[in-house]
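To fix ideas, we quote verbatim a fold written out as tokens:
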Amino acid sequence: MAETYEPRRTAVLLVDPYNDFLSEGGKVWPAVESVAEEVGLLDNLRAIVGSARRSGVRVVFVPHRRWEPGDYESWDHPNPTQRNIMVRHSFAKGTWGGEFHPDFQPEPGETVVHEHWAQSGFANTDLDTRLRQHGISHVILVGLLANTCIESTGRFAMELGYHVTLVRDATAAAKPEMMHSAHELNGPTFAHAILGTKELLTALRGEGSGA
């Protein structure tokens, strides 16, 4: 049974669309470039965001904490990703790498939620409040990384009662094995739908059938 999405109740969650992740010269781009290019990440993100806007689906930006001097250094137990950020200064505030990719800029009226410190876009942010205040029940997760922020945000969304959709080729990771784990092993334990971009675009155009 094909998925359908009522525009007024659906949001595309665009996670961490920073230059450091998505642009040539970004600090993290070399780590994800191979997988990103294999799946056509940038073109698929452009297509999904554009389709969402045309169909009236809400686009919500879900950004990671932009690094600032002193972040995590006094913490008792920063996680491994945070320790890496302390070294490479990913998404540094006030830098090109900490800006959103030029093709993924918020339009007037679109929501940019509070920055998440770890991997879930819901933990310690206003994402749940903003979604509920707009009557959102279905969330479509795209962006970076498949096996960290996308997975953590999707799991948290499921726990909060949202219908969760993952998109296999609108995300990336450092290794193909991580993509496989995110979509074939872990995703089916919490996501209500795992689609490709073409399937999702058909559903957003209202051409599917089912519930």
User: Anything to note?
Assistant: Residues 159 and 190 are 9 Å apart (CA to CA). The beta strands are 10-15, 58-62, 111-112, 138-144, 163-172, 193-195. DSSP finds eight helices and six strands in the chain. Helices lie at 19-22, 29-39, 41-55, 80-88, 127-133, 146-159, 176-186, 197-204.
